Amino acid sequence: MKKFFAIVIASLLLGGVSMQAQGIKWSVEGGYLGSKVSVSVSGVSGSVDFNGFYAGVGADFAMKAENLSIASGLFWDYKSMDLGVGDVKANYIRVPVQLKYTYPAAEGIKLFASAGPSINVGTFGKADVNPNYIYDDYDDTTDPYDDNAFGKDALKRIHVQLGLSVGIVISEQFIISLGYDYGLTKGVDVNLTNRVNAFKVGVGYSF
């Protein structure tokens, strides 16, 4: 984790050296978040859907190098996982730091691609499990198991991903984007190899 923070800080510092002071462009963005928790053990792997949506504010920091910028922002991710015996609902704050290249394809049309890490910080969530599956002597007076979604044997509070995004900007304002984030660190606090990967489809408005 320390190495990740060092990379993020270095990226911001190096970008800051060549950023134009006035070159910050803001946007509001949101869309579908098709996420999966992938687990593997002894050569056997599987995954569980962890889907939801995202919304937030993007910030594009222009650099002196033509068509290059650093794309960052602050996003809220909501995800829900159906375990069959219950479900998990979780909320995260996500901060990406990506190097972005924009190509003017035609009048009023720009294409872009960006890549870089993002940090995901779990804020709050809930895990509900149907007691029929965990109590042999369950009766109607037994309360459902209700616990925080983050912690030991649950979702990790912090996990890191490496992302790639592509998209189009129309008339300098309307954004359509596709993205994929690959988990670099564990997404669940269990003694198994696991990661959280995510596919994103979003729209936005730049101002």
Summarize this, please?
The chain has a single domain, classed as Porin. Helix content is 8%, strand content 67%.
Tell me what the structure shows.
With about 210 residues, this protein is mostly beta strands. The chain has one domain (about 1-205): Porin (Beta Barrel). Helix content is about 10%, strand content about 65%. The protein contains one helix and eleven strands, in the order αβββββββββββ. It has one helix at about 1-20, and strands at about 20-40, 45-50, 50-65, 70-80, 85-95, 100-105, 110-130, 145-150, 160-170, 175-185, 195-205. Strands 1, 2, 3, 4, 5, 6, 7, 8, 9, 10 and 11 form an eleven-stranded antiparallel sheet that branches. β1 (about 20-40) and β2 form a beta hairpin. The longest helix has 17 residues, at about 1-20. About 30% of the residues are buried.
